[in-house]
Specification:
Largest sheet of chain B: 2 strands, antiparallel
Helix content of chain B: 25-40%
Number of domains of chain A: 1
CATH architecture of one domain in chain B: Orthogonal Bundle
Oligomer: heterodimer
Largest interface: A-B, 76 and 52 residues
Radius of gyration of chain B: 23 Å
Helix content of chain A: 25-40%
Distance between the termini of chain A: 27 Å
CATH class of one domain in chain B: Mainly Alpha
Strand content of chain A: 5-15%
Structural class of chain B: mainly alpha
Number of helices of chain B: 3
Shape of chain B: flat
Strand content of chain B: under 5%
Structural class of chain A: alpha+beta
CATH class of chain A: Alpha Beta
CATH superfamily of chain A: Amidase signature (AS) domain
Order of helices and strands of chain A: HHEHEHEEEHEHEEHEHEHHHHEHHEEH
Number of strands of chain A: 13
Amino acid sequence: MQDAIQDLSLKALAQALKDQRVSATQVAEHYLGLAQGHLAPKAPNPLNTPQDHSCGAFVSFNPEHTLAAAKASDERIAKGQARALEGVPIAHKDIFVTRDFPTTAGSNMLNHYRSPFDATVVSRLADVGLVNLGKLNCDEFAMGSANENSAWGSVQNPWNRAHIAGGSSGGSAAAVAMGLAPCATGTDTGGSIRQPAAFCGITGIKPTYGRASRYGMIAYASSLDQAGPMARSAEDCALLLSAMCGSDVERDSTSLDLPSEDFSRDLERPISGLKVGIPKEFFGPGLSPDVKARVQEALSQLKAMGAQLVDVELPKTELSIPVYYILAPAEASSNLSRFDGVKFGHRAKDFHNLDEMYRKSRSEGFGQEVQRRIMVGAYVLSHGYYDAYYLQAQKIRRMIANDFQNAFKHCDLIAAPVAPSVAWKLGELNDDPVANYLADIFTLPASLAGLPGMSIPCGLGEQGLPVGLQLMGNYLNESLMLNVAHQYQTQTSWHLAKPGATGVAA
Amino acid sequence: MSLSTQEIQRIAQLAKLDLNPEQGEKMRGQINAFFEIVEQIKSVDTSGITPLAHPYDAVREVQLRLRPDLASEPNQRESNQQSAPSVEDGLFLVPKVIES
């Protein structure tokens, strides 16, 4: 059984657990054994596990807690009280606060921080029986596209260790791709679920803004931040998303007041007659030929399955870069003002007055990219510049959202590449923030519009690195996206391809 | 547009960050490079467009909710203060704010 655990879908694993063909304790021990060898290079390693071949995906563990939760699952199963995903392990991006594990958001600012509560998403997933394996590496406060901004060190791409895993949910993507966890949570502000999912060859979905509670998700840009699942397949993601989403009106002021949904309900529906919009702005000269070829093959596959491809326009696509990188830092500068060294977080040792305490604590605690975004945000919100930058960006944001509504008059869903290239080399763009920002071009539009977006593996590009197909749906249309993704995955096997394996035929 | 060294230091003050001259110069170069890609937004005609704050507002007017102003949380002073840098008798300690 042990060898096969990693090849099971979440549904099959939950069934194997329920049938007591394997115990939750065995499954937890199996995954802990693998995951504990993959701590981030600068993460504390109290377990004294050798880390020679670590990809850097994890930042903390609490094996006692994990095994106690697994034991509780085994007891429920024995009593016939198994919940939907009883005993299935999951790992959480370190941006979600957790009572039983440290929470650092990839920052020195929160080194030693312990949350007094669990994020709503974490407790909702625990409520369906998922067992928390540990916390996953990410860019500091989710600010980054390469996972090179983590205070605990970079994450390596499982397909080619010299390359980035993507970001900001790089630990989540690498852990799932390497089979260190069957599934993970991520967060997506400007592409942080979709891009690392694409770069590591897994499936990930960011739901409509407001679907998943932001309570306990350490805030970066509140009008953009959304949680979502990352796993091997669309079928797995649908199960997780159903558990994660639901209104949380008492705790999150922007939570949509809608009932929970079963996102698996339409998975098996044939997609013939479906209109798939292809935005020409996503296929311009900036798109690498290898990515373009894989995405076009995926579109041909959808067509062969009965979908109709239609041309649509998203003319403001390029503007989404400056608009996002004004709005997100503006919100970040305000959100991160809470880190002042008073109630939690790092406090400098030497200071003479309160103001100096603030400045020193923040400069010591925050990394370079975070400080840069705080600076940009403070500037665009400052007197005399607010109208020209912040307000103008918010107006263009509405125009971008309107463009999507016009496009959806002609199609049911939009398909495009996730990123202009495959994962670049570690360190390659590290000192060039603008180059990093430009690479986000294809994920930012859906984020700004608050639309659901998804990445599914659609082949391998240069140097055997994975390519992702992005699906963008209209508001609340996640079940259609998951349906299309699942149907694609019944006809192709890219989502089953594993790092190290070669020539997996579609 | 190009930010000067002085402007960078002024923003750092606003953001409560300490930048030494070397860090300030590096920051200045990077922020100015960023504003080169930002300038294009100024030429976009946005007359008559309402700013979008909550994205779902693009299709449906979103009412921001208020809840009754009632204490709903149990007292968890100890666990809430467990990560505080400096606490005494259940109070957060900070340097003197008003000089006598």
